[in-house]
């Protein structure tokens, strides 16, 4: 099972794939850190490691955990209102590693958008 720190590291890798963090990405990372009980010192260390290039995204072996990671990655990609090419490429790499079909990817995107739409 993927630990909260691994989950957060994966999202930090996604957020920093374009080498910058904006306010909305930081807020989403803080939200996940609170949800998963990861302290600020650990978050700061994960960000530092990612910026230094010593962190990489870890794809969970369990398909359900992988789908949850992809959903969280989608939220991170959309946090700043822009879908950077590098973000899309990283998302696609994870989807390929998980052997997801285009139908599964589209269904995941639809569910994520529906679940996180403002009311």
Class by alpha and beta content:
mainly alpha
DSSP strand count: 0
Overall pLDDT, averaged? 90
User: How is the quaternary structure best described?
Assistant: single chain
Number of helices: 6
Order of helices and strands: HHHHHH
> Are there runs of 5+ residues with pLDDT below 50, and where?
none
Q: According to CATH, what is the topology?
A: TerB-like
Helix content: 55-70%
Give the class-level CATH name.
Mainly Alpha
- The total number of structural domains is 1
Describe the main β-sheet briefly: none
How big is the Rg? 14 Å
Gross morphology is globular
| End-to-end separation | 33 Å
The portion of residues forming beta strands comes to under 5%
Tell me what you see in this structure:
This protein is mainly α and 119 residues long. It has a single domain (4-115), classed as TerB-like (Orthogonal Bundle), CATH 1.10.3680. 67% of the residues lie in helices and 0% in strands. The chain contains 6 helices and no strands. The protein has helices at residues 4-15, 23-35, 40-51, 63-78, 85-97, 102-115. Helix 1 runs antiparallel to helix 2 (23-35) and helix 1 (4-15) crosses helix 3. The protein is globular. The protein starts with a helix and ends with a helix.
